[in-house]
Amino acid sequence: MKLSLTALLASAASSSVIMATQYCDPATSVCYEQMVEANMGVAYRIAIPNVAAAPFDILLQIVAPKSVGWAGVGWGGQMTLNPLTLGWANGDATGVSSRWAPYHSMPGPYAGATYTVLKGSETNSTHWTLTTLCRGCSQWTAQGGGTTSLDPAATTPVNLAYALSRMMPAEPANNTSSIAYHTARGMLTLDMAAAKTDKFEEYVQSLS
Ligand SMILES: *[C@@H]1O[C@H](CO)[C@@H](O)[C@H](O)[C@H]1NC(C)=O
Ligand SMILES: *[C@@H]1O[C@H](CO)[C@@H](O)[C@H](O)[C@H]1NC(C)=O
Ligand SMILES: *[C@@H]1O[C@H](CO)[C@@H](O)[C@H](O)[C@H]1NC(C)=O
């Protein structure tokens, strides 16, 4: 049985995306497709290279108020059986954690994706920002063997899942730390064409 994240726990707060727009970081001139979830105002920013098919690397920036303990993306649009990227504040820095949930229980570490934490990953008095490059988030193999890919040529918006919690991970310096259950979750609708950029490699270099 495959439950979508939206179907999971009707008691948890659900919220929809309020806007998808282009966002260009004034400090770095890196441009992303930005989706802001309506519950806590967490911004998810994504850029992908101008390619015709997966696998491809993904540039992800998450900007969250400090009241958000962790926030994450499910690249297949659900909690289970797809790569999950979690971010959180870790002192003045931010941490990234690669996860996978075989069931609707706390996601464990996932070795199928690797991350580089990039410039602009920091925590200030009001927000934390994670800027990371993911290799392994655009294509994955489910238990049972089937390969699933994000389609960079999709002409209709692609559903990604997000989830967040108001609780900090138990050990913020530990990327396999236990985490609290999400307090909100929903869908991000990613416009692949808008997230695509010819400057992808340039962006990654400038952030490295
Ligand atoms: C934790 O960090 C190490 C070192 O960077 C990395 O090799 C590992 O894949 C990470 N694990 C998770 C679950 O993100
Ligand atoms: C902290 O960082 C966020 C994200 O860059 C920014 O919007 C916010 O203004 C910063 N807060 C302060 C107090 O500088
Ligand atoms: C990180 O957290 C996991 C899960 O709680 C734990 O098993 C592991 O020992 C921790 N690692 C360190 C270095 O504390």
From TrEMBL:
Keywords: Signal. Residues 1-20 form the signal peptide. Residues 23-201 form the Cellobiose dehydrogenase-like cytochrome domain. It comes from Apiospora rasikravindrae. Pfam families: CDH-cyt (PF16010). This is Cellobiose dehydrogenase-like cytochrome domain-containing protein. It comes from the Eukaryota.
